[in-house]
Amino acid sequence: MDLTNKKLILERKHKKVYESNDCIIKSFSKEHPKSDVFNEALNQARIEETGLNVPKVLAVEEMDGGWAIIMLKKNGKTLKEIMESDKENIRKYMDMFVDIQLDIHSKSSPLLNRMNLKFSRQINELKELSATIRYELLTRLDGMKKHTKVCHGDFNPSNVLIGEDGEISIIDWSHATQGNAAADAANTYLLFALEDKELADMYMDIYCKKSDTARQYVQRWLSIVAAQRLSKNVESEKELLMQYIDVVDYL
Ligand SMILES: Nc1ncnc2c1ncn2[C@@H]1O[C@H](COP(=O)(O)OP(=O)(O)OP(=O)(O)O)[C@@H](O)[C@H]1O
Ligand SMILES: [Mg+2]
After folding, report:
1. Which amino acid residue places its CA nearest to atom 19 of ligand 1?
2. CB 219 within 8 A of CB 203
3. What are the pLDDT digits (tens) for 69-95?
4. Residue among 50, 89, 53, 91 nearest 71 (CA)
5. CA spacing 20 to 30 A to 3: which of 10, 73, 168, 188?
C-alpha cells in the first residue's frame, strides 16, 4: 500500500477521507468508537466475500489518534455526480441504480448483523418518541416478514461509483445488515425524499416494478426506517422524518 501524497477529498464532523495513488483512507476522529470502525471494515470484508464489486479492505490502523480504514481506490465518478450532470437521462440512471440494489439483495451473508435486531435497538433508544409510539413501531417491526437478504442500509447514488470503462463499485458499507429488502428500499426512498420528492417517487416506481413488490409493502416499512434514521439526530431531517413516522396512526 502506498500512502505517499495522500490528499484530503472529503471532511465531515467525525471523519476525513483521503486518497493516494491507489488507496482510499477513511480516517475517523478519536471520539468515534473503535468498534464502529472495525464493524464497518468487517462488513465490507463480508461483502467482498459475496462476490459484489466493493473496494478491497487492506488494513485498519491507528491514525492521528483515531482509527482508519484503508482500502483500494476505485476509479470513476459517483452515480450522484453523473445523475446531476446529465439530468436528461435520469430515468436510465435510476433504472441502473435499482438493478444494482436488486443485485445486492440477491446475495446472502449469514454472519452479517441482523437488521431487525439493529432496528429494534435503535428504536428502543429513541427517547424523543413516547413509549407508546416506540411500542407501536416495535410491534410493527416484529410483524414484518423475516428475511436474510444483504441490505446496504445507506443505498443512495453517492455510494455507487461508475468507472470510465463502466465498472460498477458499491462503497460505504457501515450500515449493512441482512434482512428484508423492502426495508432497504424504504430507506433509499427516504434518502431521496429528504432531498427531492420527485426523484423519490421515480425510485419507488422503478423499484416496485422491477422487484414485483407492492408499493404498500415498501411503505409499511417507512415509519420504521424513519424512526431508525431519527436516531442519527440530524436536526434538519427531523420534521420530515416525524411526518413519515406518522404518529397519529397510533394515538
Ligand atoms: N474505495 C473508494 N474508491 C474511490 N473513491 C472512494 C472510495 N471510498 C470512498 N470514496 C469517495 O469518498 C466519498 C465518501 O466515502 P464514503 O461514502 O465511504 O463515506 P461517507 O459517505 O462519508 O460515509 P457515510 O455515508 O457513512 O457518512 C465517496 O462518495 C467517494 O467519492
Ligand atoms: Mg457515502
Report:
1. 172
2. no
3. 999 999 899 999 999 999 999 999 999
4. 53
5. 168
Q: What proportion of the chain, given as a percentage, has pLDDT over 90?
A: 91
Tell me how crowded residue 7 is: count the other CB atoms within 10 A of its CB: 9
Partners of 168 in the β-ladder:
162
* Mean pLDDT of the 43-70 span: 97
CA of 40, closest atom in ligand 1 = 26
Q: Answer yes or no: is 216 within a domain.
A: yes
Given 27, 42, 72, the domain boundary residue is 72
150 and 28 in one domain?
A: no
State residue 159's pLDDT score.
98
| Contact by Cβ (8 Å): 50, 105 | no
CA distance 238 to 8: 30
Give the three-state DSSP class for 240. Answer: helix
Residues with CB under 5 A from ligand 2 (ion): 159, 172
Q: Total structural domains in the chain?
A: 2
Q: Is 174 in the pocket of ligand 1 (CB under 6 A)?
A: yes
**Residue 251 confidence (pLDDT):** 45
Cβ count near 77 (within 10 Å):
13
Q: What is the pLDDT of residues 211-245, one digit of tens each?
A: 999 999 999 999 999 999 998 889 999 999 999 99
In a domain, 1, yes or no: no
| CA pair distance 153, 188, nearest whole angstrom | 8
